[in-house]
Amino acid sequence: MTEFVSPDFLGGHSVDEVYAAMREALPSDIDSSEGSHVWNFLRPTALVAAELYEAALPQVIMTIFPEWSAGPFLDAHAKARGMSRYPATAAHGTVTVTGAPGLAIPAGARFSTAGTDAGPAIEYATTEDAVLSDEGTANLPVVCAEVGSKGNTGAGTIILVADGRTSVTSVTNTSPTTGGTDTETDESLRARILAYDRDRGTSYVGTYADYVRWAQEADDDVGAVTVTPGSPNLVKLYITTKDGTPADNALLATVYDYIASPGDPYKRLLPINASLWVGAPEGFDVEVSASVLVAEGATLEGIKTAFLASLQLYLAQAMAAGAIRQTQVGAILSGTEGVADYEDLTINKAGSAAAAVIEVSETDLPTISSEDVTLDELIEM
User: Is residue 370 a contact partner of residue 304, using CB atoms and an 8 Å limit?
Assistant: First the structure.
């Protein structure tokens, strides 16, 4: 964000300067020294006036422009442009429940992780009714009871029955829960507003930037968009979700309908005589390993979960950028909460030199799962 510089007309209004201007308006023979009646009456007024000039008025000016606005004022700028802050979303996944054959598990049954020094237990609720099989097991979809990235947890961590359902003998999740995102930050929303202002009205002829903007306008869940030319007059879009996974058919259809508008040609954004193909990129596995110095109060499993969530978002951006850069992966790891230091970072089992830049095809999406992240604890000597 560009640093805000207070306008010149608000300068020259310190407490002393305001008080001096007040004294000049008084008769010269009136005592205005510190402790006098004039001082006692005018000095507090000068203090309030200085605060208005030096603090309040700059803040008022900043809220007028999205570049320096924040919080609810930034939300108001977004609303004026038909935009809104992305809300937090809840993580989801699957748990394997074990109990007596034929046992009914209703939607809303609650299970949780175990509380640790790093944080309290996290609860998840089943989203559909189920009955345990003849073997006494069932795989049940669950959603986190709280929204946010805190619900993204590693495999084998949802192990407790949270609602006193004693008929269930065991529960676990064989794969991580994913999809939990935090409320969009001011920085992210501000960037979208400024991009909207920069692009609005500049082009609707079908440039690369147009297709990216149109796709992201179609649905809030659209993340990275890669535009490639196909055969003559054909444009191909490769879409991922906000959490870095390939878009599903429903999201792809939403993007296509928004841009091509097959039901109403007067709402069509796609240029006349152009054809559109919308699909999801093909994934290829990425493996990352490192030795991590764990900060006090943190756990290696907690670090891995947070690192994986951030890495998935970065890999979606790497598709559009055309490369995975080791420096970026290292920055993500070092910025992960609980990481005091790290060493021996490798990507796809290649040493630091070979993994410095990994080229990514514009139609391929680098993907990574919990099994692809190996973090060993580094013992400080």
Answer: yes
Are residues 218 and 255 in contact, defined by beta-carbon separation less than 8 angstroms?
yes
- 38 falls within a domain: yes
Which among 178, 122, 174, 175 has a CA at the least distance from the CA of 145?
122
Report helix angle 15-24 to 37-51, nearest 10: 130
Tell me whether residue 179 is in a domain. no
The answer to whether residue 369 sits within a structural domain is yes
Q: Which tokens sit at 195?
A: 């991009």
**3-class DSSP state of 81:** coil
With respect to residue 58, please indicate whether it lies within any of the assigned structural domains. yes
Read off the DSSP letter of residue 347.
Answer: E
CATH value at residue 216? 3.30.300
Range of the domain at 265: 203-280
Which of 176, 112, 91, 172 has the alpha carbon at shortest distance from 137? 172
Q: How far apart are CA 239 and CA 222, in angstroms?
A: 7
Q: Are residues 273 and 298 in the same domain?
A: no
- Maximal CA-CA distance, the chain: 102
d(CA 174, CA 160) in angstroms, rounded, equals 14
Pair (366, 293) in one structural domain: yes
Q: 71 in the Ramachandran plot: left (φ > 0), alpha (ψ -120 to 50) or beta?
A: left
**Residue 178: what residue type?**
T
Q: Which residues contact 247 (CB under 8 A, 6 or more apart)?
A: 221, 222, 239, 240, 241, 255, 280
Q: Which helix (H) or strand (E) holds 341?
A: strand 339-347
Residues 144, 221, single domain; the answer is no
Q: Mind listing the pLDDT tens digit for each residue in 287-314?
A: 999 999 999 888 999 899 889 888 888 8
Q: Are residues 58 and 29 in the same domain?
A: yes
Task: Check whether residue 289 and residue 369 sit in a common domain.
Answer: yes
Q: Based on the structure, what is the number of domains in the chain?
A: 4
Pick from 16-30, 127-141, 177-191: least confident: 16-30
Other beta carbons within 10 Å of 378: 18
Residues 137 and 210 both lie in one domain: no
Residue 187: CB partners within 8 Å, gap ≥ 6?
A: 1
The pTM (predicted TM-score) of the whole model is: 0.57
